[in-house]
Each structure stands twice: as structure tokens, then as C-alpha cells.
Design brief:
The chain is of the alpha+beta class and 483 residues long. The chain contains nine helices and seven strands; from the N terminus they run H-H-H-H-H-H-E-H-E-E-H-E-E-H-E-E. 71% of the residues lie in helices and 10% in strands.
């Protein structure tokens, strides 16, 4: 900022000095013109006087040849002198006096020439002896000298002032040059330092990026290994859990068969009266009500546990399956998924609408079928009991190369407090009046992430729900198998 202010000051001062130099130059030109006009005017009068004197003394017309020219030049230079007096008013009285004197001189010269031509020599000699012409010329020379001396003084002053301006201009040029060099040097030093700092920062950043990439790769490898181990663990645990579960289910069946045998064995004893009525009633109640009810609870619990184990196995298998990317007909995919639930929808008096604005997508067929199947299953399962079901499936263009698959229903809706957790495994929202383990949306969300996309949801109670699957229109490469 300081350098800029200094440079502006130097430029301004240089401009002022340049303007003063121009003004001095203009004054010098006008002064020179006035001096030249005065000198030439005087010379013209002297030439006219010499020509007139030669003619009078010799009577030869040859001497009069320069007279008319000198007289014309004298008048022309008088006019130039009068014009120059406008720039220098102090010389105006001198010029006016010269105008009067020159008019008298030229008039006397013309009179003497005319008298000589008429051979009136005595009058001519009388005019000469009067010294009138000499007196007029001497007086005119005084005024000529005054104008010339004044012009010389102005020229001298102008030259001195111009020299001073030149000295100032030279000094300011040197100072300005030094300041410019200093400013440029300082700027260059700052730029060099900033460049060095930037280069150092870039080197540090490159080093940090290298470290970060290696750390990310190491963490990714650790994460993949951990994920693989978790999937193997889930697979092994669920597989091992099914073995005792199958045994429990088998023993439950044997228990039911044993109860039937026990009842069959009691019937002869009852008919023969070998047992009291109280014992018979208690045994019958245990055999026909208590034990079957307990067996029913055991069977339903084991079935639920078996369904959960199957769901965990399904999640584990989904994470291990390698995606098979291909160009898919979205209209065909959506139509097939809608056909799977169309009978249930039509039985409830509803309909499914399909809108396909995007014809194809590069993705995995099984994954898309699984996602759409889960979303349509939920739309049918959680329909409203007060109105006919309406489901819309849409394939739309999103921002950029993005596919939007929307499944909208007019069902009972989801409370906004449950929107964040419906994609968690084994978490269900709302009234639990439908069968299921709460694994469908969790599985759909996991598969969507493997496809490079995501599922979002908007819902309002007793209005409906819209699930939106965002996917790239063309996935670049299949995700590698984990584990």
C-alpha cells in the first residue's frame, strides 16, 4: 500500500512538472515570435529608409526596388507584433507607439520619394535637413530595443525555470526508479517467500496425503477383514443355532406323540375305573390343554427363532454375493415386481400404477428385484383399513446421471419419530399386527448401498409413504465379494 501511494505521488508530481515544462515551452515560443516580429519590423523599416535615401541621393529608380517590398513587410510584421502583444499586455503601449512612429516614418518616406520624382529637390533637402526621419527612427529603435530586451529577459527566465523543472524531473525520475526497484524487489521477495512456503506446504500436504492414503488403505483392509469375520461369524453362529433348534422342534413333535400315547393308555384305565375322577380330570386337563398349550408356545417360539436365523443368514449371504452388472430393462423389472403383489392389491380393490421415464439401467437384477419386492411387500402389508390401496412405482431421472425409483402408497404411514430406525435390523414401527421379523428394509438398505445408492423415506400418518431409491444409471464395476 505504501509503495502504491508513493508511486501515485511521483506520477502526480511528474505530471505537474511536465505541464510546467509545456507551459514554459509555449511561453518561449510566443516570446520568440514577439522578438522576431520586433526585429523583422525594425529591419523592414531600416530597409525601406535605406532604399528611399539611395533614390533621393542618386535619383536612380533602381534604388526604389526594395522600397515597396520593405514597406509591405513592415506592415505585416507590425500586425504580427500587435497579435503578440495580446499575450504580453505590458508591451501593448510600446507596440502602439511603434505603430504611430512607423506610420509617420513611412509617410515621410513616401513624401520624399514623391517630391524627388517631381524634381522638387529643394523641398527634399529641406525635409532631410530637418532630421525628422532620424528622430522618428531613433525613437522607434528605443521602443524596438525595449520589446527585444523584455523578450530576452523572459527567454532567460524561461530557460532558467525550464532547467529547474528538468532538474526536478530528473530527480523525481531517479527517486521514482529507485522506489519502483525497491517495490518490485520487495514484491519479488514476498512472492518468492510465498512460493517457497506454498511449495513446502504442498510437499507436506503430499506427504500427509500419502500417509492418509496408506492409513485409509490399511483401515479399509482392516474393515474388510472385520466385516468378513463378522459375516463368517454370523453364518457360523446362525448355522450352529439351527442344529439345537431343529432338535427342539423334533423333541416337540415327539412330545406331542407321547402325549397322544399317554391319553390312549389312560382311556382303558379310566373305563375300568382304576383311577379316581379327580385324577382322571387332572390328567385329562394336563394331556388335552396344559401340555398342548405349552407345546404350542414352544413350537411358535422356535418357529420365530428359526425365521430370525434365516433372516440373519440371508443378510450374511447378501453381503457375500458378487454383484452381476448388466443392462436391465426397467419397465420389465418394475412390471415383474408389481405382478408379484398385484393379486393381493386387486383382491383389496386397489391398483398399482407404473411410470417408466428411464428405460434402462446398468445394475444387478437380483438386487433390484429384492429391493422393489421388499418395498412393494411393505406397501401391501401396511395398507390403510379405511380406503382402497393405491400404489405408484416410478422410474425417473434425478440430478446428473442418477436414477430415482419411487414406491408411493396411500397406506397408514409411519410416525416421523420412527423414520430413522425403520432401516435397522429387527426394528419395526407402528402397530405390530403383521407377520415379519423387521429385516426387509434393513436388507433393502444394505443392498442399495452395495449398488452405490441409498434409500430415503417420506411419510405422514394416515396419508401414505414414499420410498425413494437413488442409484447411478451406470455402475462402473461390480463390488468385490467381502469375506
Amino acid at each position: 500500500m505504501f509503495g502504491f501511494v508513493v508511486l501515485v505521488g511521483i506520477v502526480s508530481l511528474t505530471y505537474v512538472l511536465a505541464e510546467r515544462s509545456r507551459s514554459n515551452f509555449d511561453k518561449a515560443i510566443s516570446t520568440r515570435e514577439q522578438r522576431t516580429a520586433a526585429v523583422e519590423f525594425r529591419n523592414a523599416l531600416q530597409a525601406a529608409e535605406s532604399s528611399q535615401r539611395g533614390f533621393i541621393l542618386s535619383g536612380n529608380e533602381v534604388y526604389l526596388a526594395p522600397f515597396d517590398t520593405a514597406r509591405s513587410q513592415a506592415l505585416r510584421w507590425l500586425q504580427a507584433l500587435q497579435l503578440s502583444a495580446e499575450d504580453y499586455p505590458e508591451t501593448s503601449p510600446l507596440v502602439q507607439r511603434l505603430e504611430t512612429l512607423s506610420a509617420q516614418l513611412l509617410s515621410d518616406m513616401e513624401m520624399a520619394v514623391q517630391l524627388k520624382r517631381e524634381r522638387r529637390d529643394s523641398e527634399v533637402m529641406a525635409l532631410f535637413r530637418s532630421n525628422r526621419g532620424k528622430a522618428l527612427m531613433d525613437e522607434a529603435n528605443v521602443f524596438f530595443a525595449g520589446i527585444i530586451f523584455a523578450a530576452d529577459d523572459r527567454l532567460t527566465e524561461g530557460i532558467a525555470e525550464q532547467r529547474a523543472n528538468s532538474a526536478w524531473l530528473r530527480t523525481m525520475t531517479i527517486i521514482g526508479g529507485l522506489i519502483i526497484v525497491a517495490v518490485v524487489g520487495t514484491a519479488a521477495a514476498l512472492v518468492l517467500r510465498q512460493t517457497q512456503t506454498l511449495a513446502s506446504t504442498q510437499a507436506e500436504l503430499a506427504l500427509l496425503n500419502g500417509d492418509l492414503e496408506s492409513k485409509v488403505e490399511a483401515r479399509t483392509a482392516d474393515l474388510e477383514q472385520a466385516n468378513s469375520e463378522i459375516q463368517r461369524f454370523a453364518y457360523v453362529v446362525t448355522h450352529d443355532l439351527r442344529a439345537p433348534l431343529v432338535n427342539i422342534m423334533g423333541f416337540t413333535s415327539e412330545l406331542e406323540a407321547g402325549i397322544k400315547k399317554l391319553v390312549a393308555a389312560l382311556d382303558p384305565m379310566i373305563s375300568q375305573g382304576q383311577l379316581s375322577e379327580a385324577v382322571v380330570e387332572e390328567a385329562r386337563t394336563a394331556a388335552e390343554q396344559d401340555i398342548p398349550e405349552a407345546v404350542h408356545f414352544i413350537r411358535s417360539s422356535t418357529k420365530k427363532m428359526d425365521d430370525l436365523i434365516k433372516a440373519i443368514l440371508s443378510l450374511a449371504r447378501d453381503g457375500r454375493r458378487v454383484l452381476q452388472l448388466e443392462t436391465l430393462d426397467l419397465g420389465e423389472i418394475i412390471a415383474a415386481s408389481a405382478a408379484a403383489v398385484r393379486h393381493q392389491v386387486q383382491s383389496a380393490g386397489g391398483e398399482i400404477l407404473e411410470t417408466v421415464s428411464v428405460p434402462t439401467v446398468v445394475s444387478d437384477r437380483i438386487a433390484l428385484d429384492q429391493i422393489l419386492g421388499n418395498l412393494l411387500d411393505n406397501a401391501v402389508k401396511y395398507r390403510s383399513k379405511t380406503r382402497q390401496i393405491q400404489i405408484s412405482v416410478r422410474a425417473l431421472h434425478g440430478d446428473g446421471d442418477v436414477l430415482l425409483l419411487e414406491v408411493e402408497d396411500n397406506g397408514r404411514g409411519i410416525d416421523r419419530r420412527d423414520l430413522e430406525r425403520i432401516f435397522d435390523p429387527f426394528r419395526r414401527a407402528g402397530t405390530q399386527d403383521q407377520p415379519g421379523e423387521g429385516i426387509g428394509l434393513a436388507s433393502a438398505g444394505a443392498v442399495a448401498r452395495r449398488l452405490g445408492g441409498a434409500i430415503t423415506v417420506k411419510s405422514a400418518i394416515d396419508v401414505g409413504t414414499t420410498f425413494t431409491l437413488r442409484l447411478p444409471l451406470a455402475q462402473q464395476a461390480p463390488e468385490r465379494q467381502l469375506g
